[in-house]
Design a protein that fits this description.
The structure is a homodimer of 211-residue chains. The first copy, chain A, is built from 9 helices and no strands. Chain A is elongated and about 60 Å long. The longest helix of chain A has 33 residues. By secondary structure, chain A is mainly alpha-helical. Chains A and B meet through α1, α7, α8 and α9 of A and α1, α7, α8 and α9 of B. The structure holds a DNA duplex (30 and 30 nucleotides).
Chain lengths: 211, 211
DNA sequence: GCTTCATTTAAACACTTGTTTGAAACAGTT
DNA sequence: AACTGTTTCAAACAAGTGTTTAAATGAAGC
């Protein structure tokens, strides 16, 4: 009954808590008391805890993936207009840029990105697959586009390098306020967006390295 | 009293289960029944569950870090003998090679590496810091060595690129049998060690990219 | 044999977990 | 105003959690 309806309140709180503390540590009672709703309302609206996670993921990831897919298609179409191959840089940018724009769009979105970054290496297979299943199609689309952008790379090499790229991106997505290793020399006034430009440089050099 | 003593049996089982299912999911009862020891023996020998994790980490990571540190020092010393700067490639190899040799030394070691890879992005700060605290010194050593190997790179850039590298390595460490995205075209007969050579190529290109 | 110490054992502890229940409150429609 | 279907609520459920306890067992020294 407060500002927004119960279902949304639950989704927002769960998103934040899952990102901050992890899926398994976060209890139903913590979620419901944070959301100021009744304990049973999660089971009423979502069935069980795992379906709530699924709902948290889908709410953000389906729209985000749509944007990413459209951006990649756009890059391919523009290249075709110039009867040229799309560049790896443009393709990777089409994948990463929407992620980062989205990340900075709200605090909830920032939580969500952290959640995704952490969950791709989740030990619990059921939880991990919730994310992998939704990310796989866009990953596959990017892979095929990059394969035609980098025809000299073998399929196997491109595939493993894409795994490396996902690892790098995950690392960045997991960063909340501070880098992985803090209390370092100076160098901490690196703002997040600077790191983003650096990210593209880094993975582009990696994927384009001689075989 | 079986083959090995209780303490070691607990450490072995915990290592395997923590890597496979995660720290929080794994219960004391699962550990003790797998190890075929009494439930209370964990608290007797280690105090509590978290101290057990600490023991699991230290048993492997302290010796491994010693090897890594020695390898890096060796590279620096050899370069000095030739009155030259150490190369970034040699330094990164000195960091990665021991990790992978260790990883293939036993199934327990393989479990352990998975555990480390996953835990560096653990949501639970207490758990995450167990790992970060032990890895930070070697990270810092590598950073300083790389800074002198790549003097044209600003400190800030090197630092963020080292974060990317850690992300890439983590991703590889988390791979157990299969890559992050399976059921792919063909390309799966990529053996693990092939991926390792590829890893060095990838991160080397990334860290040496123009600023 | 007896004592002393470290270790193992079964049982219980207090607490938290996700989920279910059935009644209460609410909204909308006729 | 009375009935409808939906949503909220407090309470309870059974199961699992990490940890503690006190008795039993083991081995070592004198």
């Amino acid at each position: 009954m407060p500002p927004v309806d119960t279902k949304t309140r639950i989704l927002d709180s769960a998103e934040h808590l899952f990102a901050q503390d992890g899926f398994h540590i976060t209890s139903m009672r913590t979620i419901t008391s944070t959301a100021e709703v009744n304990l049973a309302s999660i089971n009423y609206h979502f069935g069980n805890k795992e379906s709530l996670l699924q709902a948290v993921i889908e709410r953000r990831l389906l729209p985000l993936n749509k944007i990413r897919a459209d951006e990649i298609k756009k890059v391919i179409a523009q290249a075709e207009d110039n009867s040229a191959l799309p560049t790896a840089k443009a393709l990777l940018q089409a994948f990463i840029d929407p992620t980062l724009k989205f990340r900075d769009s709200s605090t909830g979105a920032r939580d969500f990105i952290t959640l995704v970054g952490r969950s791709l290496n989740e030990p619990d297979e059921t939880v991990r697959n919730c994310f992998l299943a939704l990310i796989f199609p866009i990953f596959e689309q990017l892979r095929q586009a990059l394969q035609s952008a980098l025809p000299h790379l073998s399929q196997a090499t491109l595939l493993i390098r894409l795994q490396f790229i996902m690892g790098t991106i995950n690392q960045v997505m997991c960063m909340r306020n501070e880098p992985l290793f803090k209390n370092q020399t100076q160098a901490n006034n690196n703002h997040y967006n600077d790191a983003m430009q650096q990210l593209l440089q880094f993975i582009l050099a990696g994927v384009e390295a001689p075989e």
